[in-house]
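fyi for ur records
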Amino acid sequence: MAQRSPDQRNEYYWIEATRTGIHKSILAALYAVQGEPPLSDGETGLGIAPANRIPPSQVNTLSEQVHYAANTLRSLINMLTADGWQGKDFWNVIGGHYSDRFLRQVAEGYRPPSTDLLAAQLEPTDADDLIKAYKADWQADAQAARLPENLTATDKLLLAFVEQLPLHYDGLAYQRQALLEGLRIGRKLDTHQAVAIALKVPDQDGCVDEAALDKALLEGIKQAERYFAGYPNQREALIRLVQLWHQLDSREAAMRWLFESPEQPTDWHRNLDAALLAFSQRLVTGYRGRGEQRFALTEGYRCWHHLDSRTQAIQDLGLDPQVLAGNTHEPATMAQAARQIDRALLAFWATVPATYTGTEHEREALMQTVMLWRGMASRLAAVQSLVTDLQQMEHANRDAPEAMPAPPVVATSAPPTCWTPDNLQLGATILPSGSFTWAEATQGGLYLPPDQDTVDAIRRLALLVQEARDRIDRPFSVVAWYYPNGQLLPGKDDTFSRHALGDALTFYCTGITGQQLYWALSPWWPGGLGKFHHYPHLCYVDARNYQVRWTH
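which gave:
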């Protein structure tokens, strides 16, 4: 087997570093400087050798080497802590990385005590090389995440974050996951089940009581804050907690968040957007024409459109408020007006799930509607009702009433008589009665045609490939159409690609090989036609004005 790519190795490092509460870059550094032993999967190791009851067969692949390297480093940290090392001995608080003293200790190698059955032996290596490799990997991560150079405030910000958590805990699954991970790493455990056992949470038939677990987690995180002493696993535990609480991409992203937005441990409006959208999708079907419902929808409409009064909202919906005021004693007139308002309101609210972008004023309009629709006395009560909605959505079966509704299909306007770069509709077909859409031609809008020549080239090809599809009588799955970067397939050495013009299509057809497509189209296709030896399911066509046939 060939060596893994850097990204694949990095994923191994992240998984094991997160599991054990060590800094990922030390694993990358060990791989870079050790280069031993040679492994059965074609890789080289991190200097991990069998020890105690760990046989050679368990440290003979890269994943196993990384796994036991992480265990061994955790064992080494435990031993040094027992010997009197303090947090400051392990960590450089200014740079935000392991201290040179600790790295030199790692470079000396380590054999775990015979009682430690999870750690292996770490071979010695050159200390200067290890320090250089470690800092290179850490600096690459820090620069990619745009971290500040001075990270002295990290611990202070972490503790401030944890102090506020109980005030913002809503019992949502991702929040519970964040607390479990924080306590798991802080207590040097490997599973969430071990955390529940350590917290003495009742377990009935394999199911943990979530209410009891939440209470124990919040108490446990208070203890973690109280006894924080800057040891590596304690810091990594809290960084991981921040990362999962805010659903951030990486450890470094969590640290950047701490420095940029330290004042709030939660961003409730972002968390509640899904619940607000689910609520808005149910409004139309749940509407029964009751006065309080009409009032709720009208107020939401008013807030959404920045109108100053309900009178302005009614006028904006197409009714004359003065006519209404003059006919309050005419039941038939008022009923007709109510039906007219209802039609306009429901037409508007039907568009909200597709047009909602998460701006503050849109969110406020929906929140106001929730309060009035559900008869809530306060904003806090409305927020809590939405939290309950989220909790139900987390566990609901897909066909349950509490589940998140499927997104509505976005209605598109009638297509123009002539397509231009300024009026493209991604969901529309390129040809009036065709099968291919602008989304397919532009990679879902990733590559939009910059000029009319490209638009015309795409349309010209659509005419031809529609006929090809009709002749084959099978759907074409688009791999690439308009592709301004030119080169598409690895190893293809053409100096020019017609994908950059918009008049080339690489595609496949389920159940038919590229060679079958090639021979089926070859007798009549007027432009370029190609098949690929190394990609047997792909076929290529273009709309040049002379015939070309090739095999790559």
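The first strand starts at residue 48 and ends at 49. thats all i got for now
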